[in-house]
Design a protein that fits this description.
The chain has one domain. The protein is mainly α. The protein has 10 helices and no strands. It starts with a helix and ends in a 15-residue tail after the last helix. The longest helix is centred in the N-terminal third of the chain and has 28 residues.
């Protein structure tokens, strides 16, 4: 499915960030203060890029499909928008999955993945013949939500951080900008040329989202960069100020 390929590309930042933070989180498992700092920066980076990518994909779904796959995929924009909501959830799931694997909860992680896959397969068999692509995207969203909730419960029970304050900030920002941006773009005077429209609107979305994210401390890029350049055990106390 064309929209599904875009979803995979959207997870690139999470994949790269995982490789950077996983070894750090693994060796900090027993040091609560240092672990909280490292996992907080990891969550900030992934959730920021997840929110930005999902918001941009949602608002520019028709342009993205046209540019990447051509006019024959114009009808898939609603599917892509559903998958962008899934992309946002997938980034939170990615945060939790790295923590579960880094902190010796591989068995729980495997059980969570299986538990999420079962309803996805069942719903696909039931709904796709009746509703088509929209049903496939929706069942993927339901499965991701189930995995997220299960991972959150496991981490909470083990008294590990789940970054609740950070997630609330990102969700509120995406919802508000998604609602406002949809109406602004619908009534805007952007050029009809799809590529120019994508570039101009994409720059605007990136600037506004990033500016607000920095202002509300959804992400602190300089602090995260400095942290990764220093020894996790001796770096300055720049711990994340987000709820758990």
């Amino acid at each position: 499915m064309a929209a599904g390929k875009i979803l995979i590309v959207g997870l690139t930042a999470a994949t790269i960030t995982r490789g950077v933070f996983f070894p750090v989180l693994s060796r900090l498992m027993a040091d609560e203060a240092a672990r909280l700092k490292a996992s907080g920066y990891h969550a900030e980076v992934i959730i920021f890029f997840g929110g930005l990518t999902a918001l941009g994909g949602y608002l520019l779904a028709p342009e993205i499909l046209y540019i990447v796959f051509g006019s024959s995929y114009a009808g898939a924009d609603q599917v892509l928008r559903i998958l962008m909501a899934n992309l946002a959830l997938a980034h939170i799931v990615a945060v939790y999955q790295v923590q579960l694997l880094a902190w010796d909860m591989q068995k729980q992680q495997m059980n969570i993945v299986i538990a999420g896959a079962v309803p996805n397969v069942a719903l696909n068999f039931w709904l796709i013949p009746k509703f088509g692509m929209e049903a496939a995207a929706s069942t993927t969203l339901v499965s991701s939500l189930a995995v997220l909730v299960l991972a959150l419960v496991v981490l909470k029970r083990q008294k590990f951080e789940v970054h609740g304050g950070l997630i609330v900030k990102a969700a509120a920002l995406c919802f508000i900008l998604g609602f406002a941006g949809d109406r602004i773009l619908a009534g805007s005077l952007l050029p009809e040329n799809v590529i120019l429209r994508f570039i101009i609107a994409g720059v605007m979305i990136t600037f506004v989202f990033s500016a607000i994210a920095f202002a509300v401390r959804l992400i602190r890029p300089l602090a995260a960069y400095r942290y990764m350049r220093e020894n996790p055990y001796s770096g300055p106390e720049l711990g994340p100020e987000h709820g758990t």
